[in-house]
Design a protein that fits this description.
293 residues, alpha/beta, Arc Repressor Mutant, subunit A, Rossmann fold, 2 domains, 5-stranded parallel beta sheet, two-stranded antiparallel ribbon, 7 strands, 10% strand, disordered N terminus, RpiR-like, Homeodomain-like_sf
């Protein structure tokens, strides 16, 4: 594949779709490489094989084998897919991790609270820009329609995702929908999700390393043929296999702490879009009633 022109290369999305479809069949070491590539799309085109291997805890030969597994002669040919995608976008700005390291190196032990706040705000802003650029309108519209048609909406999110789950339950309770937070209080995840049925929707919010409780609730929903809306960070997420519809969020992070800004924003957008659709239906019903009278 080394001699192939850029016209013959797959797009990044096509490549990631192939990786996602084959992910479960990959050996553990190659799964690590797949996860790295999914989470570092913007930098993988310039990352050294040895650095990727070290981050994944594998031998550099595993990185090469991964590329060959997907039809490339070597890893540099796989990187060309990402280079092609970013050609013409201008000089890329340093990653947030690079900016943080630079900030720490330049001002060791002298960071003010304001400096930390501004760095975190910048990371959150970057996450929102990435959310906007990568939003799949078709999947988003499908998610809204699914919620619109649901008898009951169950929401599950644990640990870091719990505040987001709590918020979307609060917001959705301002609609006529019956909404349930699967909180797991008292360890009762099984009891709280057991009544889910085919006409219901389960919203599952989870990011790496992916809550086991959330995965359990999704399996139950799948078993009962309920529809599922998964909000996660990767096509390779173990939640994706149970998703009727899925939305991806990659949060900005600063000082090894990930923001929740983009996830909250996405959930607010879901609520507003659903409320808009429901109100339209109410208005249409009123108009129809008026004409009948």
């Amino acid at each position: 594949m080394a001699e192939e022109s850029t016209e013959d290369l797959p797009s990044v999305e096509e490549l990631m779709q192939r990786i996602a479809e084959n992910y479960e069949a990959l050996p553990r070491q190659l799964k690590n490489v797949a996860t790295y590539i999914e989470q570092h799309r913007s930098s993988v085109m310039v990352d050294r094989t040895s650095d990727i291997a070290a981050s994944c805890g594998v031998h550099p030969s595993a990185v090469v084998r991964f590329a060959q597994r997907f039809g490339f002669s070597g890893f540099s040919d796989l990187q060309a897919v990402f280079r092609q995608a970013y050609t013409g976008q201008g000089t890329s700005s340093p990653s947030y991790q690079q900016r943080i390291r630079k900030l720490i190196d330049e001002k060791p032990g002298a960071l003010s609270g304001g400096s930390v706040a501004r760095e975190f705000i910048a990371a959150s802003r970057g996450g929102l820009e990435e959310l906007e650029a990568g939003l799949d309108d078709q999947q988003f519209d499908a998610a809204v329609k699914m919620l619109q048609q649901a008898d009951n909406i169950y929401v599950i999110g644990v640990r870091r995702s719990f505040p987001v789950a709590s918020y979307i339950v609060y917001a959705l309770q301002h609609t006529p929908k019956r909404v349930h937070l699967v909180s797991g209080f008292g360890g009762m995840y099984r009891e709280q999700i057991r009544s889910v049925k085919k006409s219901d929707v389960v919203i599952a919010i989870s990011f790496a390393p992916y809550g086991k409780e959330t995965q359990y609730c999704l399996r139950v929903a799948h078993h009962h043929q309920a529809k599922t809306l998964v909000i996660t960070d990767s096509q390779l997420s173990p939640l994706a296999r149970y998703a009727t519809t899925q939305l991806y969020v990659k949060e900005g992070s600063a000082f090894a702490f990930r923001s929740l800004t983009s996830t909250i924003c996405l959930c607010q957008a879901l609520f507003i879009a659903l409320a808009y659709k429901l109100e339209l239906n109410v208005e249409e019903s009123k108009e129809t009633g008026g004409y009948d009278d």
